[in-house]
C-alpha cells in the first residue's frame, strides 16, 4: 500500500484528509508539526508528502528545505497562502505542486495520483544516451559533461521528455500534460521553476546550457553536437 505523509496542524482538516486518503486506498502517516514530520520521513520513507506551510516549531518552508536535502520524494504543498508570490516561492523551493485551501477533494486526489504516477521509477528502463547527456533511470540521475547528479521524479521526467524531443520546441502546455499530467495547463509557472532547478543541478553555464528557453512557446533540448 502506498504510504503518504500528511503534515497538517489543523486537527479537523487533518482528520478529514486522513479519511479521504484512506478511503482512496492509501496508507497515511500524519504529523502536526515540523519536527514530527521529519521524524516520520526518516522512519516511514513515504512515497509522497502533503505539506502545510503554517506549522508550530519548524514551519513548512523549513520542512521542505530539509526534505529536499534528504530525498527527492514528491511534495505537494497544501496551504491557505494563496498569493502568486507564495505559490512561486513554493515551486522555486522544490515543491512539485501547490494547491490552495479551500480545495476540491477530487482535485487533490487527482494531483496526488499524478505525482505518484510520474515518480514511479519502474516506468524508466535502461540508460538513455543522447548527444552528451546520459539518463540513468535506476538512480534517477543525469550525467552531463561527466558530472552525475540525482534528480527529483519531476525533474527526471521533464529532462527525459525534452531529450527525447531533441531539437524540437516542446510547449509549456505539452510539458504540463506530459510531465505533470495537467492537460488543462493550470500551473504554468511550475515548468519555469523546474527548468531553473534542472539548470542548477546540471551546473550549466550560458555557454554550455543544453536547455533552451524559446520565448512565448516553451523549451528545447539542444545538447551537444555528436
Automatic annotation (TrEMBL):
Domain of life per record: Bacteria
One GO MF term attached to the UniProt entry: transcription cis-regulatory region binding
Response regulatory domain ranges (all copies): 3-116
Domain OmpR/PhoB-type: 125-223
Residues bearing PTM 4-aspartylphosphate: 52
CDD domains, alphabetized: trans_reg_C
DNA-binding is among the record's keywords: yes
DNA-binding region: 125-223
GO CC term (a single one): cytosol
GO biological process, one term: regulation of DNA-templated transcription
Keyword set includes Transcription regulation: yes
This protein's UniProt keywords: DNA-binding, Phosphoprotein, Transcription, Transcription regulation
Name of the protein this chain belongs to: Putative transcriptional activator protein IrlR
Source species of the chain: Streptomyces aurantiacus JA 4570
Taxonomic lineage: Bacteria, Bacillati, Actinomycetota, Actinomycetes, Kitasatosporales
Amino acid at each position: 500500500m502506498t504510504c503518504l505523509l500528511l503534515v497538517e496542524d489543523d486537527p479537523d482538516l487533518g482528520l478529514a484528509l486522513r479519511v479521504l486518503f484512506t478511503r482512496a486506498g492509501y496508507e497515511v502517516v500524519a504529523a502536526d508539526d515540523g519536527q514530527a514530520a521529519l521524524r516520520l520521513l526518516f522512519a516511514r520513507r513515504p512515497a509522497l508528502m502533503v505539506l502545510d506551510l503554517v506549522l508550530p516549531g519548524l514551519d513548512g518552508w523549513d520542512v521542505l528545505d530539509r526534505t529536499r536535502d534528504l530525498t527527492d520524494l514528491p511534495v505537494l504543498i497544501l496551504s491557505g497562502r494563496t498569493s502568486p508570490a507564495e505559490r512561486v516561492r513554493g515551486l522555486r523551493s522544490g515543491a512539485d505542486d501547490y494547491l490552495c485551501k479551500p480545495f476540491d477533494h477530487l482535485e487533490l486526489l487527482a494531483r496526488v495520483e499524478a505525482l505518484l504516477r510520474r515518480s514511479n521509477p519502474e516506468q524508466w528502463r535502461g540508460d538513455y544516451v543522447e548527444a552528451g547527456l546520459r539518463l540513468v533511470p535506476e538512480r534517477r540521475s543525469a550525467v552531463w559533461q561527466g558530472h552525475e547528479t540525482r534528480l527529483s521524479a519531476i525533474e527526471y521526467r521533464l529532462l527525459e521528455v525534452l531529450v527525447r524531443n531533441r531539437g524540437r520546441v516542446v510547449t509549456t502546455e505539452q510539458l504540463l500534460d506530459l510531465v505533470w499530467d495537467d492537460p488543462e495547463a493550470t500551473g504554468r509557472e511550475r515548468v519555469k521553476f523546474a527548468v531553473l532547478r534542472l539548470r542548477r543541478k546540471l551546473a550549466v553555464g550560458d555557454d554550455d546550457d543544453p536547455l533552451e528557453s524559446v520565448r512565448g512557446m516553451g523549451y528545447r533540448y539542444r545538447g551537444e553536437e555528436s
